[in-house]
Design brief:
The chain is an alpha+beta fold. Helix content is 42%, strand content 19%. The protein has a four-stranded antiparallel sheet, with helices on one face. A hairpin with a 2-residue loop joins strand 2 (114-122) and strand 3. The protein starts with a helix and ends in a 17-residue tail after the last strand.
């Protein structure tokens, strides 16, 4: 109880803009959790296009948002997966009209078990979800170019 009250007090002492950002990130992580759990992947990765050459006037520091997403993901009572974190960051970057790419990759780990991972890059630099060198990319979702949403490149697996 004391730990909760300490965190609550620290939260209440933050400026309103930071409180708002923390609440929005928490709600977005929860929304992405529900979307990844209950929504078909075809709808999960449908994005509306935007022109990255027109940047938002309200440019928040991306590193601060990434740090907040990682902090809140560690504090929520559910396990905030990498895909949920990547989708949350993608929402923030899209709102700011910042070009970025969401990647999904797979690998086999030391115990020969399958592992999947999601990460976000801006201008070919991984900003959330790294290191990713061991992962084979199976899908990319570029955002902020003149590409239309149907130009994503998910891996087509023939199940026949």
């Amino acid at each position: 109880m004391r730990r909760f009250l300490t965190r609550l007090w620290r939260f209440l002492c933050l400026p309103r803009a930071e409180q708002y950002q923390i609440i929005v990130i928490t709600l977005l992580l929860a929304k992405m959790r529900l979307k990844t759990k209950y929504q078909p992947s075809q709808r999960l990765f449908q994005f509306s296009p935007f022109d990255a050459s027109i940047t938002s006037r309200n440019q928040t520091d991306i590193k601060q948002i990434i740090k907040r997403i990682q902090q809140i993901a560690a504090l929520v009572w559910w396990r905030a997966l990498c895909l949920e974190q990547a989708l949350t960051l993608s929402v923030f970057l899209t709102r700011q009209q910042r070009a970025h790419t969401l990647f999904i990759g797979v690998k086999r780990d030391q115990q020969n078990t399958f592992a999947a991972h999601a990460w976000v890059s801006i201008e070919r630099e991984v900003v959330l979800g790294g290191p990713v060198d061991d992962y084979q990319i199976i899908a990319t979702y570029p955002r902020g170019s003149t590409n239309l949403p149907d130009e994503t490149t998910p891996l087509d697996i023939d199940h026949s």
